[in-house]
Amino acid sequence: MATYIGIDAGTSMVKAAAFDERGRPLGVESRPVSLSLHGGHAEQDMEEVYGAVEEVLTSLTAVLDDPVELIGLTGQGDGVWLVDDQGRPVRAAISWMDGRAHELVDEWQSSGVVDSVFRRSGSAMFPGCPGPVLAWLDRHEPAALDAASAAVYCKDMVFQRLTGIRATDVSDASMPFLDPRTRAYADEVLLTLGLSHRRRLLPPISDPVAVGELPESGTRIANGPYDLPACALGAGVTAPGDGLLIVGTCLAALVAVDELDLAGEAAGLHISTDRPGHWLRAMPAMVGTAALDWVLNTTGVAHTEVNGLLEATPPGAHGVRVLPYFASSGERAPFVEPRLRAELSGVSLESTKADLIRATCEGIGFAARHCLEAAGLTGSLAICGGGTRSPAWMRLFADVLGRPLRIVEGEVGARGAVLAAAERFGVELETAVWTEPTSVVEPDAERAEFYAKAYDDHLERLAAARSRARAT
């Protein structure tokens, strides 16, 4: 029987998952990786990330009974991973969560650069995306750029180290240098950002995705789309209008589209996929489960307690409200506001930990609704990510969003990476079987009506918070 492996090099965890030919899980190996946060900077050790990939792949293949047919690779997007000719680090990787370029983004917003780039690439820049990070490095660490052979993305670094091939794909290249119409780099964007002299650092775009072999085993491997579009594939979100909500470190809302509309607000991005004429309108908010993690760590509440606490307090959390914008680089979707920060209100001496936890989960739910509305959701909605492990939170999401949720559990990104690799290698898999939802959660009509009014209040508080952020 054939076995398929998906590797997902995430921000906080690297995983390798094995599946049989019907998409049933055979095993998962995972290793945590660290994220260094200091003074608004967020960096990762490339050797640690690559070492974790080697470990999970070795450990997983050692326990499999059948030979591996192929491997699909995915990983976190954005940021800047400067490498030399061998794919080894020139400096620490700068994460998508980095905020060092926020003043530059402020400057570009005021001057119209952000809007101009969006009209060309379909992507609104934020501090942790490659455009601002490369421009910041060009100003403050030019020697690092001089020493580098390429500025790649996480999975591309891993793919080069595994196969010796340097390449990226159209999904990673989408932010912000790709022209989504031509599927090639837009030199006008580089010129607008003052980076034309650094063009040599952009990795070659392989369209369709690049393929290679592991040198020792000869196993075929494909350098698939990055984690957001990989999750869309793994959740079966391909029909125009259908959407996916990823409740992970990043709260990402994706909607499949077959037309480009670059006339709206310069926010989010249009992710090109392996299918020409098909994009994902993406609104990846900066903080998802990371916001809840901060609250849990601060209050001393364990993750295992969340489900019970959500059920211990009613909708509205007794008046406690949270604007969940905890990222040090502000927010990037469905608007760009680098100086926006989280706010907590309505707290009294009678407020409980349960109130605070529910208010945080509700705030994240409101942010998700905002993103999905901006992305243009009209069809069905799938949901995946670590947040799906809490049934109470999934019911809350269904109520806040006012629609049924197709719950897709397991290693969805790794699953999508396998499906992308199989298509690239011409291996036929039953996609509908691989992407079948685990369950469907229906909203409660009464709670949905309550949350519709609470959402309007959330938008009003958010508008006021954005005004204060701009004034700082």
Automatic annotation (TrEMBL):
Keywords: Carbohydrate metabolism, Kinase, Transferase, Xylose metabolism. Residues 272-422 form the Carbohydrate kinase FGGY C-terminal domain. One of its GO terms (molecular function) is kinase activity. Residues 4-206 form the Carbohydrate kinase FGGY N-terminal domain. Pfam families: FGGY_C, FGGY_N. InterPro entries: ATPase_NBD, Carb_kinase_FGGY, FGGY_C, FGGY_Carb_Kinase, FGGY_N. GO terms for biological process: D-xylose metabolic process. Belongs to the FGGY kinase family. This is Carbohydrate kinase.
